[in-house]
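SECTION: protein entry
WANTED: fold as tokens:
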Amino acid sequence: MEDIERIRERLDNIRSVEPIITSLRTIAAGGWRQALRRREGSDSYSRYLGEVMTATLPHMSRREMQRLRISDAPGPPPRRVLMLVIASQRGLAGAYNDLVFRGAEQIFDRQRMQSEEVLLATLGARATLAFRRAGLEPHMSWDLPVTRVAPLDLVRALALELLSTLTEDRVDAVYLVYSPYRAATTESPIAERWLPIDRTMLPGEAASWPEPFVETDPRSLFRRAIEEWTLSRLYRIIMEAAASEQAARYRAMDAASSNLERVIGELTLEYHTARQHAITMEMLDLAAGSGSLSGPRGSATE
């Protein structure tokens, strides 16, 4: 009976956890789909902005491009670099965070060979905590829910803070370190330069007919388009990182749910087996007790 009670108690505990795991899997699936939709929307918006910049770029002089910090070609490696590592705000995402941290350390080592100083910035509580445990204090950190499906206003505020590091000449370049999205697996992180921009990063010229007619001032239109395009790039990367995180969390919760179903099945079978064994033993005890009470035949007449 003790084995039956122990199995029943363990079975009840696991069954109480199963709805929580299922709910987390459902939430991760919803965040995954929403992040992918917003990434696709950001890509479409960037293409429209690219068409605007392509039409207005011929009207920009070299001096005006320099004011916008847009160079003609990629220059030498930047002297001071700020690298923003985008990780998770929460756990339960499998090996996602560990993969981002290990990959970021390798990227830092390669960048230190090219730049004089590499500053660390973190986005997400998990990244901040992990680097502090490793003895690296972030130069800047944001423990904001942007690694989930963040609103554009929150990303815009983050972009302004990052942009201030360039305008105040605290750093020469800003890189974003994130895990690119793959549906079936978690990819190692990559580093993508966000700012400053050179002409090679701008959308290429596209043949169009008829030639677009620009009614407003093309220079002011280009400046507004490049600002929105820069923000859209940051938003797309954050949404891609969010999709990668939510996909990893969904896979982890789906694997946990499958393991729970397997364990519940094994414990249920073990419970029924132990119960049948207990019933069999009780029947044998009853049979043995009945035989001892009746005694041998003929003993009362002797």
User: Anything to note?
Assistant: Strands lie at 70-71, 80-86, 117-123, 140-142, 173-178, 190-195, 197-198. The radius of gyration is 31 Å.
